[in-house]
Amino acid sequence: MNRERRVLLVVPEGVDDPERVSGGNVYDRRVRDGLAAAGWRVTTSEAADGRAVAAALERVPRAGTVLVDGLVAAWAPDSIAWAAQRARVVVVAHMVTETFPDADPLAVDRERRALGGATRVIATSSWTASELVRRGIVRAERVTVALPGALAGPRARGAAGRLLCVGVVAPHKGQDILLDALGRLSGFDWSCTVAGSRGADGGFADRVAAAAQRFGSRVRLTGVLGDAELGVAYQRSGLLVAPSRAESFGMAIAEARTRGLPVIAAAVGGIPEAVAGGGAVLVTPDDPAALAAALERWMTDPDLRARLRAEAGAARTRTPRWSTTVERIDRILGEP
Description:
Number of domains: 2
CATH topology of the largest domain: Rossmann fold
Number of strands: 12
Distance between the termini: 17 Å
């Protein structure tokens, strides 16, 4: 196999750890495995800090190719710029940190420098790409979009009141907003499963868990679910709720779309792009009252439910697949 088909993939430590499931880790794993299946010789280097990133980049041969997760790239922006002078350094931007309400200025600066120093940037949504350009982080000609894919699954068949929220339990995902909204709907017939890792922000996760206790068995915090368990959760649900404060695309939304599962979500970041084609209701971000009103309408308006279910069912075949994601990245890595 020639050198042009070799790539070093630099990802966060624990990318395969089932207890550290995140959208970025899933994306990295699918791309890693897809590139290998497409004929690339992929060497994976896991990094826990900037020194580990720098050490990995030092091993890249001159004129070699390296694909770096944007999170770890921001830990070592100077090393990214150095490596890009001698090799092809492509960084995957899963998010735009400065769009987060509580963004750390130091993290923002590091991300800006890392993305600015890369040879090319892959954005995981058109919204992310446009934000990178609009904010002057990356020039338009250096950004390519490779949307996350989704795995096809059985069509969702749950009752209208069976709600599902999927994502790491962290402030930007807005589980606290959801629980606030549900507290306004105590008289309605609903249950809610909140699935996702609680390891990203322990303090926030503890507050969410404490708030959930007042609902008794109506709210279940499951922690991380494996692929099979999560697939069952989608199939048994009637609605996906995505109350995010910040979101580059929404991989849980993509998974819901492949199952014809309607969505109520915050109109933030790349979410409108993820639900293009219908099957969703978008609400004002960080607004529990607006979310509660949308949920109440969903549970009380059969015409709305019928329309959203029909639209979501029609969207099943239009949701991007991982094979398309890998094909796009394959082409980018193979450019001269």
